[in-house]
Every structure is written in C-alpha cells, then in structure tokens.
C-alpha cells in the first residue's frame, strides 16, 4: 500500500506556508538575517516541538515565522515546500499565508507575496505543479486589521484566489469577521475558514452561513451535530482535514480515534492535508500513510480522497477535467 499511496496523485488544500519551515532552513535563514535562535541545532529545535493544544503550537509557529525577512526568504521557503510536493506526487496545491504575521513587524506585503508567488511560478515551470494562494486573516486580531489587510490583498488580486481565517479559534468566532468576508466576497475572492478544529460545531455552521465559505478547514467537530453532518453531505461541503496535525494538537488522542474515515464512508467530502508539516511531523504521503495504517482503507477510498480534493479545489473547470 505504501507504493500505491506514494504514487497516488495528490491535491493539497490546507497548508500554511509558514508551517512548512523546517528547522534546517530556519537556521540557515536566521543566520543570513543575523537573528539569534535560542537552540543549539536544528535537531534541538525539533525536539522542542511538543504541543499541548493549538495555542502552544501557535506561539512557537509565530516565533519561527519571524525569522523570515526578505523576498528571497519567502521564495526559499516556498521552493523547499514544492520540492517536497514533487516527492509526494502532489499535482496541485492551495497554500495559505498569514500576511499580518509579517506586516505587523514591518515586512512589506509585497515582499511576502512576491517571494511566494515567484516560487510557485517556478514550481509550475519546473515540476508542473499548479497552485493557488489564499491569504488568511489572523482571528486573534481585530476585524479592522483584517479589512486593512484586505486592501493589500486586493492590490495583488491577480495572484491571490481567496481569503481564509486562522489562528486561535477559541474566543474568536466566525461572526467577528462577517463584514471583512462580505467585502472579500464582493471583490470576487473565494472564502474559506478554520472552524470546528478546537471550536464547537456551531463555528462550522456560522462559517458556512455568515462567511459564505466554499469549504471548511478542519471541521472535524461537525460530528457533534448530526443535522450539520447531513447538511455537509447534501451540500457536498468539503472539509480540509489534517490528521497528523489533529494528533499533535490533541484534537484526537490517537489516529485510531480520528473520525476522517468514518466521515468519508458516510459520504462527507473529506480531504487529507498536511497543515504545518514542519511542526507536525509529516507531509502529504505521511498523512495518508498514518490514516491508512490505523484505518485500513481500500484503494478506491484512498483515490476518493484525491477526487474530493480536485472537486473542492479552486482550479478552473478546464484544469479539473484534466486532473479528473
Ligand atoms: C494553524 Cl493548525 C492551525 N490552526 C489554526 N491556525 C493555524 N495557523 C497555522 N496553523
Ligand atoms: Zn490550518
């Protein structure tokens, strides 16, 4: 099955590019930017990646992202991720970035988007990997700040497909960003949001109703509301599930407790994604392998995960036809 999974074409819909920063690259970038890292080696840093919950992860993740300064840094980060995509047979990826993590410390929006975008263009040329960019608002910050960020996003709308919502879910419900998302939609951007990761099923309902999302990031707590699960099935609303992330952040105790295969068998449009692979211990193939190991899936079920991701992606209909 390892060979089948490795060879299976994959589509990634939930990947924070800052979360793909491996300790080795972090050390290299920090050195050239003359930033001090309070660890002796990349191995020592990796050892420190033990999390109790979402917030304990986010604290370390934002620290790591602060090493990124120049356009070259963002290019190198994105390029390293694309090289991993190639190894994992990822044919299309839709990547998140967090503009405010960088603009709030004086890095220009242009620096960030140009570095990421140029690497993606080269990834398409060299590896044939197609891609889209989604800019996420940090939900622990204000809606005002999100709207200010939206203005920058709109200046680069030729490179950005949609907006998302990430960071601390507890205490920052979808409702807080209703107006910012309305403005984004009016401008022609797609919308997605993290919901039902650590927050309740109600956040999934609100992301769909108030933020008009095209898909839900995580969404695994939908099972707490039977009517919602039925609605997700009927409306073919996709969930971008991140199995290894959910174990690392203790959303589930272990992989055998994870509900993704149950949801798949019930007809929910679930997909497998890597979230923050440098922090959670695995890229796309690793996530597929981990789920298959504890749930024993058929080839047809594994293939369905890719079909679901193609359908839920923001690729043009022509390109979808090519991938189908
Ligand atoms: C994230 Cl796993 C997760 N959840 C919410 N926000 C995030 N940002 C980066 N990874
Ligand atoms: Zn995420």
UniProtKB/TrEMBL annotation:
The lineage of its organism: Bacteria, Pseudomonadati, Pseudomonadota, Gammaproteobacteria, Vibrionales. It comes from Photobacterium kishitanii. Catalyzes the hydrolytic deamination of adenine to hypoxanthine. Plays an important role in the purine salvage pathway and in nitrogen catabolism. The record marks 218 as: Important for catalytic activity. Substrate binds at residue 276. SUPFAM superfamilies: Metallo-dependent hydrolases. One of its GO terms (cellular component) is cytosol. Belongs to the metallo-dependent hydrolases superfamily. Adenosine and AMP deaminases family. Adenine deaminase type 2 subfamily. One of its GO terms (biological process) is hypoxanthine salvage. This is Adenine deaminase. Residues 9-324 form the Adenosine deaminase domain. GO terms for molecular function: adenine deaminase activity; zinc ion binding. Binds 1 zinc ion per subunit. The active site is at 197 (proton donor). Its EC number is 3.5.4.2.
């Amino acid at each position: 099955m390892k060979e089948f999974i490795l060879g299976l074409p994959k589509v990634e819909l939930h990947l924070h590019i800052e979360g793909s920063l491996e300790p080795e690259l972090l050390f290299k970038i920090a050195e050239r930017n003359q930033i001090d890292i309070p660890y002796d080696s990349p191995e020592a840093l990796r050892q420190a990646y033990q999390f109790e919950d979402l917030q304990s992860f986010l604290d370390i993740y934002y620290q790591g992202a602060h090493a990124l300064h120049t356009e070259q840094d963002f290019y190198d980060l994105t390029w390293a991720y694309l090289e991993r995509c190639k190894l994992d047979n990822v044919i299309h990826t839709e990547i998140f970035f967090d503009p405010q993590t960088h603009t709030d410390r004086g890095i220009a929006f242009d620096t960030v988007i140009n570095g990421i975008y140029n690497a993606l263009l080269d990834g398409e040329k060299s590896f044939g990997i197609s891609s889209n960019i989604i800019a996420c608002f940090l939900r622990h910050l204000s809606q005002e700040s999100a709207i200010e960020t939206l203005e920058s996003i709109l200046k680069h709308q030729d490179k950005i497909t949609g907006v998302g919502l990430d960071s601390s879910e507890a205490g920052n419900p979808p409702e807080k960003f209703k107006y910012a998302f309305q403005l984004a939609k009016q401008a022609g951007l797609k919308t997605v949001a993290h919901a039902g990761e650590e927050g309740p099923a109600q956040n999934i309902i609100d992301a769909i109703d108030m933020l008009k999302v095209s898909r839900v990031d995580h969404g695994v707590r939908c099972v707490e509301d039977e009517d919602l699960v039925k609605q997700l099935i009927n409306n073919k609303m996709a969930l971008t599930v991140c199995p290894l992330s959910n174990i690392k952040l203790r959303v589930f105790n272990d992989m055998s407790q994870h509900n993704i295969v149950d949801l798949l068998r019930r007809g929910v449009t679930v997909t497998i994604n890597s979230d923050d692979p440098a922090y959670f211990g695995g890229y796309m193939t690793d996530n597929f392998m981990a789920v298959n190991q504890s749930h024993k899936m058929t080839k047809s079920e594994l293939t369905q995960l890719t079909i679901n991701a193609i359908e839920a992606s923001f690729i043009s209909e022509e390109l979808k036809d090519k991938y189908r």
